[in-house]
């Protein structure tokens, strides 16, 4: 037998052995119409993912998808998914990897997009915290040599990011007093040729001052042109965490490009998640934002996406109760002898509440209304955030404010806001302690300022708790002075 004949016999024997192995393997699986056969061996059964029937998708509540990766129809399907540009939402091709988006995250994002009034060209993206959303939005458009304008009263974490990171990346920052009727002109005065971001926070944290968003959008358009006429126009971003879309749909304001929320607060509403949202009607911005999320930050996880959706379902009724309670608390604070100033948009004393339906406060608090005629049938509310300043200067006011916060028994001493339970904090020693005192005072954050997030408890309990703590501080000081 020659070498060729020997090779052919060996090849035939090998083929028969492979065929026998294939038949043996096939008998280990039951027949199925699924793409993959159902295993019968124990180890493979353990490692195989089982799915409910297709009728499971009829559940009223959306399911929670924890998967990090997704099956593909074929290699071309995978190629399409990897070749696509990032977008706020997926399309009929589905998902490929959860860092690029996942079903529960997308369902929640679509719900917030609906509240924000996002059009068919834009989208909403969810992040693991409000700060993650803020920093992602800024990183998606700012580069070395760019300039950005921010208000003095910007949230402490945003200020820290600018001072600790952005300026070291050679981004130039100007801070201005952007609140009130003169705010738009203060923004205009800060514009430069290289301005790429105009940032607003309204109502401001914690002073509750209102920014004239229509005015800001107008001066940006007048100085740089509209986005349609000038694609290099600065991106106008608004953090309206205090108001939520219940009161303020910022993307409906001409000239506003980006809406940002810390969903940890009112949208979630129960102090049990960290989340942030960024919405825009610009496909260009959404593309850049998605790239930052994919490569630097991360999407909101499925469980917190589900909890955020659940919280949003009661947003309308919660916001009304927050506002009703807050007005009663604010009225008591304004009359208390230990309180020097009370900042609440619903009070006539608020600097931006000049009266009438066209004042800044009225425009900033739509109170869940959808149509102009709703103003005659739906109650006006002004949110659940109050700031007040105890009397005194410097360290005296600082210590008084601390004692007032520590003396509360119904209101909880804790940071954050927007939950069903009431929270109190002292910005000078807590949320805004990282801001230099000079900058803090320039933004109206006095040493004796206290911030309250009014919850949905019985209003009389909250009023009594705050009054008792204020009275106790006064009585203690009177006793000390008498001694």
From TrEMBL:
It comes from the Eukaryota. Pathway: Amino-acid biosynthesis; L-cysteine biosynthesis; L-cysteine from L-homocysteine and L-serine: step 2/2. The lineage of its organism: Eukaryota, Sar, Stramenopiles, Ochrophyta, Bacillariophyta. InterPro entries: Cys/Met-Metab_PyrdxlP-dep_enz, Cys_met_metab_PP, PyrdxlP-dep_Trfase, PyrdxlP-dep_Trfase_major, PyrdxlP-dep_Trfase_small. Transmembrane segments: none annotated. This is cystathionine gamma-lyase. It comes from Cyclotella atomus. Its cofactor is pyridoxal 5'-phosphate. Its EC number is 4.4.1.1.
